[in-house]
Amino acid sequence: MARYTGSSCRVCRREAVKLFLKGQRCYTEKCGFDKRSYAPGQHGKGRRIKLSNYGLQLREKQKVKKVYGILERQFRKYFQTASRSKGITGSKLLELLERRLDNVIFRACFASSRPAARQMVMHGHVLVNNRKVDIPSFSVKTGDNVVIKPKEKTVKIVKESADKLKDRGYPGWIDVDKEGLKVKIARLPERSDIAADIKEQLIIELYSK
Question: What confidence category does residue 1 fall into, taking pLDDT thresholds of 50, 70 and 90?
Fold first, then answer.
């Protein structure tokens, strides 16, 4: 299955919640979801479908996949790893997703959206413990130091993003040096660090069938 390259606003409308996939634009009056919050398609505005339990579980899984920008095979691997780990499977699943390198860049406000953070990592603009890492799914661990490469054009873009998003705040598991464009992983993320409206239990129920 290929990666979705269509309208980001259409994805938000399908999931009936704003996923902030277009960065700063999602916070302005230009946001497509705010203009048309109903489902996409010719009959989207008039349809009112009551979902079954399976439908609710499927939509929740699809929503989380879109939030973190990953496909089904990779998402299933995350679930399998979480289910084999000690602790609550749902919390471990979200922990694994949060530890992705592209998500760390996004959480540090160095990119306005996860797709932008993913592109930054893939283009080799990010160092982890002084080594270039160009894999967005790279999993950080406690004590890791993530730094934006000191390239003039990149630094300018990242600092502009950090200034615009400074009111968004940072999660408690990372320490951010906005001036030095550095992030230190203070600890592993916990469920309480994730403010997104995610019902991970529905995903567990879906994969447990």
Answer: very low
Task: Give me 131's structure tokens.
Answer: 């080594």
CATH number of the domain that residue 125 is part of: 3.10.290.10
Question: What angle, rounded to 10 degrees, do the helices at 89-98 and 200-207 form?
Answer: 110
Say yes or no to pLDDT of 2 above 60: no
- The DSSP bridge partners found for residue 128 are 131, 146
Residues 166 and 178 sit within 8 Å (Cβ to Cβ): yes
Residue 15's pLDDT is what?
Answer: 56
Note whether residue 1 is domain-resident. no
Q: 116-139 burial, b if ≥16 CB within 10 A, otherwise e?
A: bbbebbeeebbbbeeeebeebbbb
Give the pLDDT confidence of 77-104 residue by residue, as tens digits. 999 999 999 999 999 999 999 999 999 9
Judge whether residue 38 has pLDDT over 60.
no
Q: Is residue 3 part of a domain?
A: no
Cβ 151 vs Cβ 125: under 8 Å = yes
Q: Give whole-number Cα distances, 176 to 100, 137, 183, 199, in Å.
A: 16, 20, 5, 28
Paired tokens of 126: 């990010």
